[in-house]
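[step 3/7] inverse_fold.run input=structure_tokens len=697
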């Protein structure tokens, strides 16, 4: 393979393993050749995809914040050079303004272009964020076409792709906006929305003039801008604090050599961290080699199809119900009999010892009329079903079960209903049924929170989720038996103080500063601390001062955790280590002067949290890690990767049902049995053993 062939493959961005090996064998001393640089780029991309981590090659470009930020996205028919849609999203303070300028025909292109110019000129020199070179080329072309000065516009452009290319490697196969955004949890309402699909939609619009295609294009354009904004915020976070993110790695440090002493110490710390993992019925902490630890896994437009029960569908049973006797609005006033018939058909699932079968029941009865209010009323049994209700409790419980612990998206559940029962239901109907179902468990949520606040120890943690392009926070609070999730728009600790107001037990948490001001005893998570120590040891493998410091921490905590493994969280066996703690602080923390920035950082942390690191030594049954909260919130982290984004209105209802789901898991109870039973108090729910037991309803 000669140089010309290499350049040909380079241009196409295609390399085989043999070609990559060739490029590495032809390395020269000094600066990398172009071929080597490209080979290294693809090596990092492959590493990112294999590990699922983000790799930073060079110092990332910091994207400054501006008072006004404008995100732009254009849509075009390439072979006609017809720009038919100009989209902008303007962010100013807490306000968001969306603008879309649509050209019905080529004759309308100039008008849409001028409208776009007039909007961006309102904001002076505010930056215009775009992704890739398409918008900059389009502005030059349209400026020349219509005689518009574009120099100042070009100067305002900020191509975010330049902050990624050659600097940040995401675990995706391309640097396309949709690929990266999907990885970050930013999604589009139309999963098949691509550049090619947009051309198809525009063609369909030109042929039929149906507004549904225009709406698809405008929605996709708006979501491009919104998700582009979300990507920008993620890049700012990586630039500001990338080293502290769980899935961000520095490429130059990855696989770097490490002295044997540091390597052994890092391995020792990794083994300690293994003891922070276990099953929900964690009874024993292990401090053995990785090979000896048994790991556990989590439990784991056809309108005819947008209905569940169609006309003429076979009904299994017809129930004749009695007419109501008294008026609901006028107690004591009798209803006058009428010949008007009321009926309602309910689709449900019945669980028997032989399996699950569908059941369609039709309720029929005569209406009664009130002479006072002049209203006719259906029989009480039909009114009790709910106006417009078509689904029974068993079916909604079955759907909720597949949505929550099974993590199936709504379209898959709809397909499963069709395949299993030959019935049709649309996704929005499934979603609305789950939202309605969550209302049944409002009292359960209150009971769970009350019991958590009465427990001697509470675990808390938080994580981000994407709500229609915006990052919000989900907080979990658990006592190891009961679980509650709460949603907030930001990471302010207000929710922590509201939930723990008056709490007199011990709070276990990580080192987020929002927990520090809670007026109760606190135990900080040693697993987080050890993880941070180990990660920095890998990043600073030749910092001898820091290595000695970490070694001292290891010598302090290892005997303590070995005693926990042997005797459990019993104070009478742990108090003897208080002298070791005092000695550690005298020798390595108090009044010590360190030159290493990393060592200084951890020295300050040990000083700040001395009273909150060793509470488990003084009080029986206090865990040394925050594993309970991490286990509780792990389900949401997995769902976040599957769903990408969550709905604004439905998320609180989903979290309420997730609280019920995780509480059942922590108590080793069947969620499906609970949902079918109609029981609200999970602690009192016993369930049935065996397959026959949980199928019976």
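[step 3/7] decode complete -> sequence:
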């Amino acid at each position: 393979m000669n140089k010309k062939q290499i350049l040909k493959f380079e241009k196409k961005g295609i390399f085989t393993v043999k070609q990559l090996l060739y490029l590495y064998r032809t390395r020269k001393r000094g600066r990398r050749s172009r071929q080597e640089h490209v080979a290294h780029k693809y090596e990092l991309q492959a590493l990112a995809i294999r590990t699922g981590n983000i790799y930073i090659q060079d110092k990332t470009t910091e994207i400054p914040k501006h008072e006004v930020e404008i995100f732009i996205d254009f849509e075009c028919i390439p072979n006609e050079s017809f720009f038919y849609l100009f989209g902008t999203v303007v962010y100013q303070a807490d306000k968001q303004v969306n603008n879309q300028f649509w050209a019905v025909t080529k004759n309308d292109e100039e008008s849409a272009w001028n409208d776009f110019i007039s909007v961006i000129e309102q904001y002076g020199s505010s930056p215009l964020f775009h992704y890739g070179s398409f918008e900059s080329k389009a502005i030059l072309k349209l400026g020349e076409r219509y005689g518009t000065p574009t120099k100042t516009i070009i100067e305002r452009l900020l191509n975010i792709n330049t902050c990624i290319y050659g600097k940040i490697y995401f675990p995706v196969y391309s640097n396309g906006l949709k690929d990266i955004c999907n990885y970050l949890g930013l999604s589009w309402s139309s999963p098949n929305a691509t550049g090619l699909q947009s051309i198809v939609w525009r063609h369909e619009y030109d042929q039929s003039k149906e507004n549904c295609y225009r709406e698809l294009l405008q929605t996709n354009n708006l979501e491009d801008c919104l998700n582009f904004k979300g990507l920008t915020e993620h890049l700012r976070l990586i630039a500001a604090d990338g080293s502290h993110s769980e899935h961000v790695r520095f490429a130059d440090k990855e696989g770097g050599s490490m002295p044997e002493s540091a390597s052994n110490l890092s391995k020792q710390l990794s083994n300690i961290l293994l003891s922070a993992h276990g099953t929900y019925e964690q009874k024993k902490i292990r401090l053995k080699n990785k090979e000896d630890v048994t790991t556990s896994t989590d439990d784991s437009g056809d309108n005819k199809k947008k209905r569940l029960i169609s006309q003429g569908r076979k009904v299994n049973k017809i129930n004749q119900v009695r007419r109501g006797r008294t008026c609901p609005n006028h107690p004591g006033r009798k209803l006058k009999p009428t010949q008007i018939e009321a009926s309602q058909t309910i689709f449900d699932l019945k669980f028997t010892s032989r399996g699950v079968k569908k059941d369609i029941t039709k309720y029929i009865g005569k209406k009664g009329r009130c002479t006072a209010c002049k209203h006719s009323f259906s029989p009480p049994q039909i009114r009790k079903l709910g106006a417009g209700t078509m689904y029974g409790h068993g079916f909604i419980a079955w759907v909720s079960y597949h949505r929550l612990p099974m993590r199936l998206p709504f379209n898959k559940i709809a397909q499963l209903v069709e395949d299993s029962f030959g019935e049709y239901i649309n996704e929005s109907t499934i979603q609305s049924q789950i939202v309605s179902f969550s209302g049944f468990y409002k009292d359960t949520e209150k009971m769970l929170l009350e019991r958590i606040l009465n427990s001697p120890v509470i675990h808390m943690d938080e994580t981000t989720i994407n709500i229609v392009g915006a990052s919000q926070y989900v907080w979990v609070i658990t006592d190891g038996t009961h679980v509650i999730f709460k949603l907030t728009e930001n990471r302010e600790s207000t929710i922590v103080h509201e939930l723990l107001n008056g709490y007199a037990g011990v709070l276990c948490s990580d080192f987020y500063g929002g927990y520090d001001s809670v007026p109760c005893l606190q135990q900080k998570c040693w697993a987080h601390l050890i993880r941070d120590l180990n990660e920095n040891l890998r990043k600073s493998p030749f910092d001898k001062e820091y290595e000695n410091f970490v070694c001292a921490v290891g010598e302090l905590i290892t005997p303590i955790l070995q005693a926990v493994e042997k005797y459990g969280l019993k104070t009478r066996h742990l108090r003897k280590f208080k002298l070791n703690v005092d000695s550690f602080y005298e020798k390595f923390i108090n009044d010590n002067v360190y030159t290493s920035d990393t060592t200084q950082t951890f020295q300050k942390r040990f000083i700040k949290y001395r009273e909150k690191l060793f509470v488990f030594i003084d009080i029986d049954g206090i865990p040394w890690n925050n594993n309970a909260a991490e286990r509780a919130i792990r389900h949401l982290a997995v769902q976040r990767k599957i769903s990408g984004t969550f709905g604004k209105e439905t998320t609180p209802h989903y979290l309420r049902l997730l609280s019920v789901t995780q509480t059942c898991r922590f108590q080793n109870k069947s969620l499906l049995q609970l949902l079918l039973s109609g029981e609200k108090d999970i602690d009192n729910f016993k369930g049935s053993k065996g397959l026959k037991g949980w199928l019976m309803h």
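[step 4/7] annotate
The chain is about 45% helix and 15% strand.
The first helix runs from residue 3 to 12.
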